[in-house]
Amino acid sequence: MASILTDAARAAHRVAATILAVTQIRVGEGIPAKRIKEDDPQKSFVLDLTGKNIILGVAGAFTPACTSQVPQYIADYDEYKAKGIENIYVVAVNDVFVTKAWKEKLAPQGTGVRFIADDKGEFTSNLGLLFDASDLLGSPRSKRYAIIAQDGKVESISVEADPGQVTSTASKMILAQIA
After folding, report:
1. How far, in Å, CA of 34 to CA of 126, rounded?
2. Of 17, 58, 59, 66, which one is the catalytic site residue?
């Protein structure tokens, strides 16, 4: 009986990921205004994308590749600010308790990098960047991506072919693209 329920749950996650998936956002398109959370599970808001911003999508807080990628963005924060970046948002399809704990683990002295919980996956799904990670992470998650946004529109987007790898979305690669 348990295996039947487990199989049914897996199938439901796959169907959900397929239904939620839309065409991947492209350069020049507006970033959808979907509600996300940061520090408070009761308070949701829409990302402020005024000016130039970085949106870094990661598959999950505390996963090995994500935990090795994000510290470089934290270390490079001042370089981003010097190049006119308003905010760096790290977006994970996790709940706010997890993203907040992850931020405290990666930046115990604090950081200007903002850790965002897309707890329902709606923001990520509307970007067309949700994938079925049920076998490894238990549910649909974000592809690994980096968006440079100017006033709410995609100026540049890099999406890793393998969400477990960090190449085109590495901080130094994104920094090099900013004039």
Report:
1. 8
2. 66
